[in-house]
Amino acid sequence: METLGEYVRAFLFGGLLCAIGQILIDKTGLTPARILTAYVVAGVVLGGLGVYQYAVDFAGAGATVPLTGFGYLLAKGVREAVAEQGLFGALTGGLTAAAAGITAAIVFALLGALFFKAKPKS
What is the spatial distance between Cα 69 and Cα 86, in angstroms, rounded to a whole number? Predict the structure, then answer.
């Protein structure tokens, strides 16, 4: 069973990632799309180096749910697939590991599009 401390660590770590993103939006000329891409790439690099695992062990969902966690998941999937399948795993491992999350995003986007009508920003 989870303890209150685990929830607090997850909240603080995830909040820190969000705060850094907001600071980058407010204080730099970076677009949100570039920041989001940088977060995924940072997750891949830190995951590939094995550094992000410490954040996952410390913060749990606070580290795995944000975009850096998606990058970490891709790197972890590639690492495991390469260990099992060799070089071919480098091509399939990331998408295999992230398939459930990608599928959920597509399904929920479809449901949102079916049940809600988009309005132009005015």
Answer: 24
